[in-house]
Amino acid sequence: MFYRPEDGHGLPHNPFNAIVTPRPIGWISTRGADGSENLAPYSFFNAVAYVPPQVMFASTSAKDDRGDTKDSVANIRDTGVFCVNVVEYAMRDVMNQTSGPWPRETDEFDLAGITREACETIPCSRVAAAPANLECRLTQIVKLEGAANFAVFGEVVGVHLRDDCLKDGMFDVLSFNPLTRLGYRDYSVVREVFSLKRPGE
């Protein structure tokens, strides 16, 4: 089949998210200017540069108590920092609990019973048990087409790696099995890896 998004797809559910898969999940922790804390997962997330290391995530909806966006973007606008927490399969349920449209005063760390620790380089909390945490300073927020679409870019200024995830000097994803987002309500998990050499190597 072929369809133009502006005309609609004619299917029971939008296939777009199922086409662009799997997607890593950026579990974004932020702190508001008033000291309140927020933790929310975003599947429009990825690393975008090596030197300096940079990541991005996109927020695509809004809440009545935040105007044109959600808590994460609103907090980052105020403070200029955020932390990306890597989601392992074992944390799928608590991650999902933090994805709800909770009021802005809700602290998702407390809501889901997640232990927090202070970041080293930015005034923000991180998920203490996560396999890795990326402490980020905002570089830019880009307004995308659409009413509530924002892409947030940040430079990674601090990296935490859980000790049990380091094997022979390498960060071993099979030691924690990253959770990934598919389409609809579907997720997947990384349980197998293989290597390919680039041409000329």
Structure overview:
- By secondary structure, the protein is mostly beta strands.
- It has a single domain (5-189), classed as Electron Transport, Fmn-binding Protein, Chain A (Pnp Oxidase, Chain A), CATH 2.30.110.10.
- It is 12% helix and 35% strand.
- It is built from 4 helices and 14 strands.
- The strands form 4 sheets. It has a 7-stranded antiparallel beta sheet, covered by helices on one side. Strands 1-13-14 form a 3-stranded antiparallel beta sheet, with no helix packed on it.
- The N and C termini lie far apart (40 Å).
- This is Nitrilotriacetate monooxygenase component B.
- Residues 18-173 form the Flavin reductase like domain.
- It is an enzyme of class 1 (oxidoreductase).
- Keywords: Monooxygenase, Oxidoreductase.
List its salient traits.
Pnp Oxidase, Chain A, mainly beta, 12% helix, three-stranded antiparallel β-sheet, 14 strands, monooxygenase, monooxygenase activity, seven-stranded antiparallel β-sheet, 201 residues, oxidoreductase
Describe this structure in a few short sentences.
The chain is mainly beta.
Named at the architecture level, the CATH assignment is Roll
| Structural category | mainly beta
The total number of structural domains is 1
Tally of DSSP β-strands: 14
Largest sheet: 7 strands, antiparallel
Uncertain stretches: none
Strand arrangement in the largest pleated sheet: 3-2-6-9-10-5-4
Strand residue percentage: 35-45%
Assembly state? single chain
CATH topology: Pnp Oxidase, Chain A
CATH class: Mainly Beta
**Could you name the CATH homologous superfamily?**
Electron Transport, Fmn-binding Protein, Chain A
Domain Flavin reductase like: 18-173
Keywords: Monooxygenase, Oxidoreductase
GO molecular function: FMN binding; monooxygenase activity; oxidoreductase activity, acting on the CH-NH group of donors, NAD or NADP as acceptor
Organism: Roseicyclus elongatus DSM 19469
